[in-house]
Amino acid sequence: MNTIKAVGFSLSPLALVISAHLAHAAPSAANTETIIVTGSKIQTTIADSASTNWVITNEELTREIQGGESLKGALGKLIPSFDFGSTNARTNAKQNLRGRSAQIMIDGVALNAARTISRQLDSIDPFNVARVEVLSGATSIYGAGATGGIINIITKRGEAGDAQLEVHTGVTTGFNNSDDLTKKAAVAVSGGSDTLQGRLSVAYEGKGAAYDGNGDPILPDVTQTDTQFNDSIDVMGSLDYRPDDEQHLSLTAQYYDSQQDTDYGIWFEDTTDLKSDVERRKGLKLDEQPFTERLMLNTQYSHTNVLNHALLAQAYYREETFGYFPFPRNGLFSGSEQSNDVYGLKVLLEKNWDNVTLNYGLDYSKEEFRAKQYVYDSTTSATSHGLEFEKKGTIGRYPDFDTQNAGVFAQADWAVNDKLNAFAGLRYQYTKYKGSDFVGLLEQAYVLLGYLSDADAIPGGTTDKDIWLANAGLKYDLTDNQQVWANFSQGFNMPDPSKFYGKGKYDKAGSMSTGELSSSVNVNNTPLDGAKTNSFELGWRTQQQDYNAQLAAYYSLSDKTYKYKGADLELNSNKQRIYGLEGQIKYFLTDAWYSRAQGHLVQSETKNNGSWDELSIYNASPSTAMAAVGYDNFDWGTELNLQHVGDLSDETGYRLEGYELVGLNGYYTLPVGQINFGIQNLLDKQYQTIWSRKAQNAYSETPPASKRAAPALFDYAGVGRTFSLSYSATF
Q1: Distances (CA, A) of 227 to 148, 172, 258, 375
Q2: Quick one: which of 90, 108, 423, 716 is 20 to 30 A from 124 by CA?
């Protein structure tokens, strides 16, 4: 049955914890014993958590993924306050959690970085995902980037016993054209003894073209890129060593590579006029096509008794590079390649007394960000109308930045009596940026092309910021399987330094830059400030024999506002508030029939001249809802679901049109293995994705008039009706 049977999670950046098996079981009080640790960094049970938590089980995720959804699309359907994602997009840009940014992790390793590259969900094949665990709302425990909450992707691991072989193969198509086909294949071997267990897997996906509800090809995304004609491979290995009952050492290594190889590009009627007509055409000649490549190493160690404490420790390394499609600027086509190298360490100690548990520890990370820009010959691009690219050279895209983050924290849980628990915590965070000298992007291009002999550099330097964050909460048991809670927590975000620094104004002689710097925004003259968010929440949950439900009301207030205009960022003191309702209910009509409904009602506003105005549609989230009814008798099952996106408008009159989509999925159990099927966009709805409308707002509506492009360049329609069929088995 494709349902969540427990309301909870076990998100840990420090250790994997054991969750109860939830598949094919009616909700019961026993499921509230699922262990959770991330929300407070205290190991406890679901019923003891004073926050809104969700577990997306492997069964639920499999239903959506094998029914034809992408990972970001499936999570949008299964997490009530997570915005719906586009199946065809590579990016999860502006896919908010409770209207704000989410910190996305794999086994507790954060994929967010100082440079806000939105490809955290282009990071793993769903074949390797055991479950996804979510904390909604700001948290003071995890540092920057989690003002909307935390989404932790927990990977599959080996289990003690005989060797097992897991296989999966599947296809998805809309029957529009011979190139409209997605192919999937994956294999994993796992097993081990009571002391040592391991798993090794390889997963492949090859995607073809995408077509909309009218059967027309969807335009390639020249902003954040898409996954048409894209091949991805995910290789993952893990080892778990338990020498005794007190110790556990786990090792994980992953290599993920997602590469586009397409002959289709954007044809511009006039490459010097971004407002000219555009269309998708064959004939693209481009060596540096969009890609995502990531290597991740993760080591975790736990010991239940170190000086009368429980110890959890984690060390990790992440190396990733991202490639983008060429985009026309000032008559020149250029495409970027950006990379992060990150390593970090986290240590947690836990001490228990009779009715008090104390967790305290520290974490540290260092990031190295580098970016380069490929400049293409303007004559070749112009004569081919933007389809052929001849590389002239490479320049810097942004200043290089090294970022260091260090934090210390403490968290306490006090069992006041049998029904009431009180929670409180404190975190100190220190962030330091070191930026390189940087010549303006356009001036670098002029030097490369011979229009300038030299240009002044915008000075780099070092800046830092520290901040204190607190949280507190109460949880009260109305009954053994019903709780209410209230909490307060602070989170914060730091602006992207690459968008903020390295901006300069150069003198001009006529229409050409002289290369002489007259003013700039740099590390030395402009401190980089963060935005603190105060978040308040009231919640209720229950688990009964025939139904379970969870509902929370929240209010979050930030003391500053960031505004992105094209490639630039503005920081002002205007406050920003986001408030809403998040909830889900699941009801079992009979032993086989079930229903579920979830919704997120959200309002996003910014304070301007003393009044609260609606936040821009680029930054705000639309209200969403999901409803489903299904049948499951253990041998076969099917589910019909409806997703709704509400309309969204802002103070300037820009509008995002909502839509409704219907989907159908199911499975049939064979003597060996299982067949899954799915139909996405069952009614073949023609609609514009949320990202399409936000991209138009960012690149066509709000930039200065001279830099605006035609809205048609960012018209990314949603994928029309598609059919999926897959087979999976474990031997």
Answers
A1: 26, 14, 9, 23
A2: 716
Residue 634's alpha-carbon distances to 23, 56, 168, in angstroms, are 10, 19, 20
Reading the block at residue 595, the tokens are 């229903």
What burial class does residue 343 get, using C-beta atoms within 10 Å of its C-beta: 0-12 exposed, 13-18 middle, 19+ buried?
A: middle
Mean pLDDT (whole number) for 54-60: 92
Distances (CA, A) of 20 to 13, 152, 250, 492: 19, 17, 20, 33
Q: Taking 80 as the threshold, does the pLDDT of residue 492 lie above it? A: yes
**pLDDT level of residue 22 (50, 70, 90 thresholds):** very low
Contact 370, 394 (CB under 8 A): no
- Residue 418: the pLDDT is 93
Instruction: Give 705 or 670, the one with higher predicted confidence.
Output: 670
Both tokens assigned to 480: 């053994």
The DSSP bridge partners found for residue 226 are: 89
Contact present, 502 and 544 (Cβ < 8 Å): no
pLDDT(724) > 90:
yes
Q: Is the dihedral of CA 505, 509, 515, 518 positive or negative?
A: negative
Cα separation, 585 vs 390, in Å, equals 56
- What's the predicted TM-score (pTM) here? 0.92
Joined together, the tokens standing for residue 723 give 């059919």
Residue 454, helix vs strand vs coil = coil
The answer to whether 577 touches 599, Cβ cutoff 8 Å, is no
pLDDT of residue 4 exceeding 50: no
* CA–CA dist 601, 583 (Å, integer): 9
Give Cβ neighbours of residue 340 (< 8 Å, ≥ 6 apart): 113, 115, 117, 318, 319, 320, 367, 368, 369
The SS3 assignment for 219 reads coil
Would you call 558 helix, strand, or coil by DSSP? Answer: strand
pLDDT score for 43: 53
What is the amino acid identity at position 139?
A: T
Residue 610: pLDDT above 90?
no
pLDDT above 50 (res 552): yes
Q: Do the Cβ atoms of 414 and 422 come closer than 8 Å?
A: yes
CB 17 within 8 A of CB 45: no
Nearest to 259, CA basis, from 297, 232, 228: 232
How far apart, in whole angstroms, are the C-alpha atoms of residue 469 and residue 142? 10
Ranges 240-254, 326-340, 576-590: which has the least confidence: 326-340
Q: Quick one: which of 97, 177, 180 has its CA closest to 139?
A: 97
Q: Are strands 53-56 and 35-36 parallel, antiparallel or unpaired?
A: unpaired
The mean pLDDT value for 570-586 works out to 89
Which secondary structure element, helix H or strand E, spans residue 444, and what is its range? helix 441-449
- Positive/negative CA dihedral, 554, 557, 563, 569: negative
DSSP string covering 113-177, please?
A: -SS----TTSS--GGGEEEEEEEES--SSS-TT-SSEEEEEEEP---SEEEEEEEEEEEEE-SSS
| Lookup: tokens for 676 | 């899954």
Residue type, 631: Y
Please give the backbone phi and psi of residue 676, each rounded to the nearest 5 degrees, phi first: -115, 145
Is 227 within 8 Å of 234 (Cβ atoms)? no
* Max CA separation in the chain (angstroms): 79
Q: Quote the CA–CA distance of 163 and 191 in Å, as a whole number.
A: 4
Q: Closest Cα partner for 104 from 121, 82, 127, 126?
A: 121
Rounded CA-CA distance 24/633 in Å is: 9
Q: Are 362 and 76 in contact (CB under 8 A)?
A: no
Look up residue 291 and give its two tokens: 């890609």
What's the pLDDT at 501? 85
Structure tokens at 688: 């514009």
Closest by alpha carbon to 400, among 465, 335, 471, 339? 339
Q: What are phi and psi of 694, to 5 degrees?
A: -70, -35
Query: Strands (DSSP E) along 174-326, which ranges?
Result: 182-192, 196-207, 230-241, 247-260, 264-268, 278-282, 291-306, 309-323
